Amino acid sequence: MTEFLTRSALLLGDEAMERMQALRVAVIGLGGVGCAAAEALCRAGVGHLLLVDHDTVDITNLNRQIFYTHRHVGMNKVDVAAERLRDINPEAEIAALSCFYLPESSAAVFDFAPDCVVDAIDTVTAKLHLAVSCQERGVRLLMALGTGNRLDPSLLRVGDIAETSGSGCPLARVMRKELKRRGVLHQKVVYSTEVARKVLASSENGRHSPGSISFVPPVAGYLLAAELVRDVLAESRLE
């Protein structure tokens, strides 16, 4: 076992750490949520990680996306992320896929043979396709819902998609309806019960990016990582 994981082994035990080292996880979306989830999984000892994102680092990412600094602006997110995680655990397999998750690119994700997938994607169509694809293949999926325009990380919750009813999250409402239409009746999600705040800035066309803060999206990512590890260990009767 890699020496830096000795404290984790004191908590989980050697057998659980061996399970973590064998685990294959794809993290799709390397924004505020995905960065935190990927790093937490790497530091927990997950031995095989696939990082998926199409984007380059923008200066506006730096307020919440923990992998990136000013020197990374303009670089591919997956390259920056992979370098950081390899520096944390040089013995891990860290694969990088620079693309949108779309139906036509999904095969590359599943060619990695993930045991689990973390969905930190923003777009509804991609989230729906991923959920259906994971259900068809029997791959465990943990999904993040909206974290933008929120200020209170203590109002983040983990539950089934059905439990998001009444949360006031517009993304949750759409996902409940569309997942049910596609036959995905149960899906574990991280969601917020906080009413989304209004953006204070205005724009010419009335459209704007959601507001964000340094401590809400990463907490959602850590919750995703925690649930994934606990679920896998419970399933293996190692928790």
UniProtKB/TrEMBL annotation:
GO biological process: one example: cyclic threonylcarbamoyladenosine biosynthetic process
Domain of life the protein comes from: Bacteria
MF GO annotations: tRNA threonylcarbamoyladenosine dehydratase; ubiquitin-like modifier activating enzyme activity
Transmembrane segments: none
Alphabetical list of CDD domains matching this protein: YgdL_like
Residue stretches making up the THIF-type NAD/FAD binding fold domain: 8-231
Pfam families: ThiF (PF00899)
Stated name of the protein: tRNA threonylcarbamoyladenosine dehydratase
